[in-house]
Amino acid sequence: METINFVLSGLGGQGVLFMTKILARAALNKGLKVMGAETHGMAQRGGSVVSHLRLGDVKSSLVRTDSAHFLLALEENEAYRNIPFLAKKGRMYASASENSFPRQEVRPYLEKIGVISRSVPAADMAMDLGAPMSINLALLGFFSAFKEGPVGHDEFRATIDQVSPDRFKEINLKVFDAGFEKGSKENR
User: Percentage of the chain with pLDDT > 70?
Assistant: First the structure.
């Protein structure tokens, strides 16, 4: 299998590490080799959290600049901050306003390197469902609707069911499904 690189980013408390765990576990359940690294920064104070996840036969856990196939960002500024990781023709998914993402000044660069960017108001969706801590699952559900990664919607859903604590399982799946529905409407 060809190596597939993910960079996941957000702010402390948004669930970057849980999102990484779900992605890694779903890949492992599918029989893929997984290697990852986390850089926490000031996570406890709402600072940047970045996680690198590499699928395939890799020798190191860090994703190099210009080599991420996918960037999943739980916060708009974290998406911009991590653009240098994206490979040519990479994919960027962000929790951001659908109408203003990406910013006008960033678009020419993204077009030049062939990056496709998609956004969903994941924070608003999670809040509307009464689960403000589940931005990560709304974004992951949205991402799964585009069938671009090595792990599909059903595999993510089964993994969320497997790793979620019982008291959060129902709401976690509900938020994930809402993100998936939103992405499915856009992907028609």
Answer: 96
Residue 75: give its domain's CATH number. 3.40.920.10
Q: Which residues have C-beta within 8 Å of that of residue 1, sequence separation ≥ 6?
A: 32, 33, 55, 56, 57, 150
Per the structure, the complete domain to which residue 124 belongs is given by 4-186
Query: Is 72:19 a contact under the CB 8 Å cutoff?
Result: yes
pLDDT tier for residue 43 given thresholds of 50, 70 and 90: low
Per DSSP, the residues of 5-64 read EEEEEEETTS-HHHHHHHHHHHHHHTT--EEEEEE-SSGGGT-EEEEEEEESS-S-SPPP
Q: Give per-residue pLDDT as tens, 127-182.
A: 999 999 899 999 999 999 999 989 999 999 999 999 999 999 999 999 999 999 99
